[in-house]
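REVIEWER CHECKLIST
Item 1: Sequence provided? yes
Item 2: Single chain? yes
Item 3: Sequence as submitted:
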Amino acid sequence: MAALPTAIPLVRSFARAKLSAWGVEADHGWECQQVLSELVTNAFDATGEPLPGELLVLDELAMILVQLRISAQHLIVEVRDSGDGRPHIPDAGVNDEGGRGLRLATMLAGAWGWYPVTAPQPGKVVWASWSLDRNTGS
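Item 4: Structure as written out by the authors:
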């Protein structure tokens, strides 16, 4: 999706629909949507945002890739952007408006991390995961 402010509510709707279809919305829906919103916000900031009133040319907009995956044991969200900065948890002051996204991911997700990518374009993927308790009754 294009790195625009409208991406964040679209990502939340996408996540809600996927988690509901997979039957895990009740288990991790709220946490996943919150973390995904923060990761997309960080990706949006890392790719640079268009200025208000700037003429937008779709081919020139930075793109963000969002992926949700599920296995028998894990729910994983990944957000890819073209930024080259290493994600870190900053020391956010009480009055700071930003700097809490990865701290929130640390509190709400079972784990999070990142890795650099080089193809087809350079950038990074930031991910978060949750363990799924899928007892089969045995």
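Item 5: Key structural point noted by reviewer: The longest strand covers residues 123-131.
Item 6: Recommendation: ____
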